[in-house]
Amino acid sequence: MMAEGSLSLSELMERIGKTLKEGFPGPCWIMAEILELHVNQRGHCYMELIEKSRDRDAILARARATIWASKYSMLRPYFETTTDMELKSGIKMLCKGTVEFHVQYGLSINITDIDPVYTLGDLARKKLEVIRKLREGGVMDMNKELPFPVVPQRIAVISSETAAGYGDFMDSVNSNSQGYCFYTRLYPAVMQGDDAPASMIGALDAVFDDPDRFDCVVIIRGGGSRADLECFNNYDLAYYISQFPIPVITGIGHERDESVADMVASQGLKTPTAVAEFLVDQLLAFEFRLSAFRETLSSQVSRTVQLQGMLLERLAGDLSHISGRYLQKKEEWLHQSDLAVQKGTGIFLAREKDHLSLLETRNGLVNPENVLRRGYSMTLHNGKAITGTEGIGPGDILETRLHRGRVISNVEKITKNHGKGNN
Q1: Phi and psi at residue 227, in whole multiples of 5°?
Q2: Is 112:96 a contact under the CB 8 Å cutoff?
Q3: CA-CA distance, 293 to 238, in Å (whole number)?
Q4: DSSP string, 59-70
Q5: d(CA 257, CA 236)
Q6: What is the mean pLDDT of residues 398-421?
Q7: What is the CB neighbour count within 10 angstroms for residue 3?
Q8: Domains of the chain (ranges, CATH numbers)
């Protein structure tokens, strides 16, 4: 027996359905995130919608939703064309729908319209939130502030090996019109989807751990939809790029928007080909600077040589003039010295001549001939003049010279005189 006031399950569900229909008599706009999305063979789209808390990312609510094939065939192309994103899990959307309740299948939302502007706004909000966190962390411009290499030739490339953008980059680098040589090494990574940020961070780690020293890191892919490129707005990836110790260049193949990765990289370029052209331009600019430096150096050397030549000519003229004046002064000094020498020599010779005359006179006075002429005589023993009896004995022959003639005598007796002076 049923207790009074009790309801069967079907009755309960019918009442709930009636209450929901009275509470939501018409369609309403609902903000939700797609957790799962599945399209069956008939073209009907079945989704599971959720709402997350903003602080802890916890699920606050969950509901099933349906877009029937007739609507889905129009809503999906419109959404993807407007947002340049695929309608898939992880997308936040603002959808219009009616609340449906079936006693057997429960609550469901029948979606009849989607506002793509809301989705774009949500993505923009997320991007701005990432940028705000990077700025508050003080890392937004850290990679940009690294000195860019003057000659970037050793390049670490992060890309998918099969990506068309990677092929375009390598063709442009290896066949550049200037003939510059580059050394490149590929670090493969997933370049789209939920796994892309972690994969690219792993590739950056591999570059950092590589014993080879690279001049810069290039992150490239060959374009894609907005959803494909959304991974480049990831906070963790952007934070890692901003603090990477080597300059990072991005070329992820988009023309209409700038990702956060572009904003924090040392150089954010649009395409892989643009990255290759940028690297070639750096080497070309370096070559131009070298040429300009060479021309400046050559000009300065020529100018210096010219100035020094003029200086040498002036110094040579000054030296000739100074040396001429010096030699003239020396010549005058030598002439004066010669005159002084001549005068001094004349005086000296005259003085010496007078002195010689005096000596001659004195010598004449003491000349033996003159002495003999005055009545004196000179006695010689063995040819030597004697003044005493020393060394003379009886029988010795003595020669006495007179003014006129000589006397030879034989010594018979010697008498010694003991007076003053002579013996």
Answers
A1: -65, -40
A2: yes
A3: 39
A4: EEEEEEEEE-HH
A5: 20
A6: 76
A7: 5
A8: 9-135 (2.40.50.140), 140-284 (3.40.50.2300), 375-423 (no CATH)
**Rounded distance between C-alpha atoms, residue 176 and residue 275, angstroms:** 12
Here the tokens at position 394 are 């009886």
What tokens does 56 get? Answer: 């802890």
pLDDT surpasses 90 at 245:
yes
CA dist 389 and 415 (Å) reads 8
Please provide residue 373's backbone torsions phi and psi, each rounded to the nearest 5 degrees.
-65, -25
Q: Containing H/E element for 409?
A: strand 406-410
Three-state DSSP class for 387?
A: coil
> Can you read off the two tokens belonging to residue 23?
């509470």
Alpha helices in 234-271 (DSSP H): 235-242, 260-264
What are the angstrom distances between the C-alpha of 49 and each of 34, 89, 116, 180, 213? 5, 9, 16, 55, 48
- Integer-rounded Cα Rg, in Å, for the chain is 63
| 407 strand-pairing partners | 400
Is the C-alpha dihedral spanning 391, 395, 399, 402 positive or negative? positive
* CA neighbor of 20 nearest in space, from 137, 121, 94, 110: 110
First vs last Cα of the chain: how many Å apart? 201
Q: pLDDT tens for residues 21-42?
A: 777 778 889 989 888 999 999 9
